[in-house]
Amino acid sequence: MATDEKTWRRLADAVRAVSSQPDRGSTLQEIVDQAVTAVPGFAHAGITLRRADGTVDTPAATDALVRRADEAQYELQEGPCIDAVWVDDTYTIPDLRQETRWPRWAPVAADLGIRSVLSVRMATPETVVGGLNLYATEPCDRFDPDVVQQAHFYADAAGTALAVATRTEGLSSSLQTRHLIGMAQGILMQRYQLDTESAFAVLRRQSQDSNVKLRDVARQVVDGRADL
After folding, report:
1. pTM, whole model, 2 decimals?
2. What residue stretches are annotated with the ANTAR domain (predicted)?
3. Quick check: is 53 in a domain?
4. Is 78 exposed, middle or buried (0-12, 13-18, 19+ CB in 10 A)?
5. For 139, which of 8, 23, 95, 103 could close a Cys bridge (C-beta 3.0–4.6 Å)?
6. pLDDT > 90: what percent of the chain?
7. What's the mean pLDDT when you consider all of the chain?
8. Which candidate, 133, 150, 135, 132, places its Cα nearest to that of 94?
């Protein structure tokens, strides 16, 4: 990557800001907020994430313009954000008014005021996380290859930070659930003179009979709202 020290510092500062966020939601928002600083030439950014069921959405964006442009892609089922997740890792659009690859979405986005687009894949070594979408309200003659590389560098680092935040949040949630269930077991053991396994069996049976998650049943017991 043919970048100078100032560019590297800008990218490093952006990645550092993303990696220092306390939770997944903050990480997502910081990724888009820092993207317009990390990658020159764009004032608007959003993230397209793929869900387990194969659908996609935009959990974070710098502004309403991005959300409208992304939502149009999802409704029309075409566009660079979607293809960056599922098809290829880089899509550049110098001028949306001349774009023909997405004939339904391009004029909609152009009418919103968007003229040029850079969409790159966010991935870790293990999986594709989503896509980073950068929008500008001015067309460009050509995309500088260094800028595209900088976008990829930032997107990969941001994707890794997001994966770590997601994993950490999942572990934290699991620990909280285990603690909550343990508290509920303790209450049932004391109330009904049960052992640990029997108390857990009561919680599990209540969960199955009421079609309520085990965690929520445990919360009801702890809060004194369960009729057991």
Report:
1. 0.74
2. 161-222
3. yes
4. middle
5. 95
6. 49
7. 88
8. 135
